[in-house]
Amino acid sequence: MSLMTPEQRERYARHILLREVGGQGQQKLMDARVLVVGAGGLGSPILQYLAAAGVGMLGISDDDDVSLSNLQRQVMFQTDDVGRSKTDRAAAFIERLNPDVAVNTHPRVDEGNADETVSNYDLVVEGVDNFAARYVVNHACIARKIPLVSAAVGRFEGQLSTYKPFEQPGVLPCYRCLVPEEPPRDQQVNCAEEGVLGAVTGVLGTLAAMEVLKELLGVGESLAGRLLLYDGVGGTFRTIRLPADPACADCSKLSG
Ligand SMILES: [Zn+2]
Q1: Does 197 reside within a domain?
Q2: Which of 149, 160, 162, 231 lies 20 to 30 Å from 138, alpha-carbon distance?
């Protein structure tokens, strides 16, 4: 634990004013290490708010370059970033926003590197666009007992939850309890094929950042065991209970 500098006290003054955060909570954020998987429409507000909040170390995992069609929703990137590496441009954005934050860039998480990548972090948050990556991250986080905040969007809708089945095995679910098998291609909502309103990624990404900060601070009610559903057309939120699946291939062994 280190004492905050006068500049840090000023930068984080509105956090420190909050009884639930204070200087101690701010120090927790500054000592925290969070991996953000996917530097896209969800990853943009996630990284922006976590960097602004002073999370001490941020990992960014992505392989893509910025494309023109990203800019409608990936608000961390500028037009002159097109063609350049997303992780590099995201790291540059964070450096300008908050030099207190240490940034690590990682390639796309896959089966071969997932365990090593997540093992350096206290918490993982993902906003990726494919089921394979979600399963890999889910599996690695369970094995390392690392909480996972997971957000997804499509068209005008989104969903969000926090997965930490190891805290209450058999009660709290993991991502695979929600989606046991990858749905057939024609039933998948994919923003490349079906579109997504840019602001929807902002809503869900910001809510994901909120859940990350709550987990790090130990404040409020976790979304673990609940799924938050956003319907942008109706302008409504719903929360449904999300139980553990006793037959889950990824987390049911935890209860044994
Ligand atoms: Zn499970």
Answers
A1: yes
A2: 231
195 C-alpha to ligand 1 centroid (Å): 29
Instruction: For residue 199, give the amino acid letter.
Output: A
> Is residue 20 assigned to a domain?
no
The per-residue pLDDT for range 164-204, each reduced to its tens digit, is 999 999 999 999 999 999 988 777 766 667 899 999 999 99
> Would you say residue 100 lies in a domain?
yes
Which residue range is the domain that position 215 belongs to? 32-255
Position 183 scores a pLDDT of 84
Interval between CA 96 and ligand 1 midpoint (Å)? 39
3-state secondary structure 56-87: CEEEEECCCECCHHHCCCCCCCCHHHCCCEHH
Residue 139 lies in a domain: yes
Active site residues: 191
The 3-state DSSP class for residue 113 equals: coil
Select from 250, 229, 228 the least CA-distant residue to 165: 250
> Rounded to the nearest whole angstrom, what is the distance from the C-alpha of residue 201 to the centroid of ligand 1?
25
CA of 241 to the centre of ligand 1 (A): 14
CA separation for the pair 153, 229 (Å, rounded): 10
We report the CATH number of the domain holding residue 219 as: 3.40.50.720
Q: How many domains does the chain have?
A: 1
